[in-house]
Amino acid sequence: TADTDTGPHCMGTFASRGTHRAGNAVIQAAREARQVMLEVAAEELEVNASDLETDGQGNILVKGAPQRSISIFDVALSAHFKR
Question: Angle between the 14-45 and 72-82 helix axes, to the nearest 10 degrees?
Fold first, then answer.
């Protein structure tokens, strides 16, 4: 029958559970990748990583001096060829 009271206990919707578990791993990996990206950009711009921010348009800027910037593309190239 379709009576849920007679069926075994279920943990819930499996796709949602997978997203919850895997999603947290993806979030952590993204945070780590962002930190590495900022460290490479800081080296290129000769500033501390804590002095940088992203503009949401593919660039990393020095806080308070937006004319000092580097594109995320250039950061990726730099990281690739230096490591």
Answer: 80
